[in-house]
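User: structure tokens for this one?
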Amino acid sequence: MAKGKAAKAEKAAKVTKAGRQPKFEDGARPGDTLKREYHDEMYSVVVKADGFHFGGEVYTSLSKIASSLTKQSTNGPLWFGLRQTAEEQRKGAAPAKKAKAAKAAPAPAKA
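Assistant:
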């Protein structure tokens, strides 16, 4: 089998029942369990190679799960805590850059 055909066959084997590959977003990898408390209930999603397992169903994205729970369009990785909001990123960016610069600076020589 040619390389191109083998790659297509491998990709097709990873496609879920819905006909799409799962999006492993922002660090979610097969074997992980994502948990979120919402309206006093704990929700768990198990990340597997074929997708995100939740409520007896296999989903192709976290956003579909989050949106089904909140009944509105929702960013799944953000909702499950895998991604920061833009505001959190802005607040966290400055200290991280300072810390990185401080590590790179050489220590003063002792006399």
